[in-house]
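User: I'm putting together a small comparison set for a docking exercise, and I want a reference complex before I start. The sequence is below, and the ligand is iron/sulfur cluster. Could you produce the 3D structure with the ligand included, as structure tokens?
Assistant: Of course. I'll restate your input first, then give the structure tokens for the complex.
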Amino acid sequence: MLKLYEKYLEVVDRYIKKCFDDQQPFIHCNIGCCDCCTTGEYPFSRLEMEYLMAGFPELPPKTQKRIKHNIKTLLEEKNACDGRFLHKCPLLLDGNCAMYERRGITCRVFGLAYFETVNGKRIVKLPECSKCGLNYSEVLNNGEIGIEEFHKRGVDGPVSHPLNLTFFEKEILNGVNGLEFGEIRPILDWFVNIRQNQMRELDNN
Ligand code: SF4
Ligand code: SF4
């Protein structure tokens, strides 16, 4: 199943690269920029999580230890938190993703504008980092999408450019090409189970 998923990822990556190319005039992603990995829940399906963890033993022992420490600390903080727990991803080390090649689909689309269809109407959403002066920040006008800012740049508007996230949601929920993605949970919730099964030594380190 993981081999099949790798093949699926090749197609997904090609599609996402096309979206980034299309949106290039509004993209400011750079190595070392990691705001998108600092505040979130990072939803992963069971299959994405299995793929991620299959690469964990290949990491240098020091890196594994740091990730385990992050997970342990975050799980304690989450337990003590009453509301929704938004947090830095435990795989983010020194401003870089420690498992970049195996990151989830949600991570692969970070930074793109996207649209959702609500009651038959297309609603365009900009990436969160647009509010921090990053991707698409130049078309924000008092927190709203300023269509005139697109026009100034010779672009009709965001609808011709963004990614249809529904495309992935449907595939993940229904499965595709023999792939069963399984349930979707915030990344930390997966680690609660993994901790019981594969990471028992977490408490001892
Ligand atoms: S898995 Fe990697 S890319 Fe995804 S949120 Fe975590 S650090 Fe960021
Ligand atoms: S998506 Fe935004 S926060 Fe993430 S790397 Fe790109 S510009 Fe930086």
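Residues 2-204 form one domain. The chain has one domain: 2-204.
User: Thanks, that's exactly what I needed.
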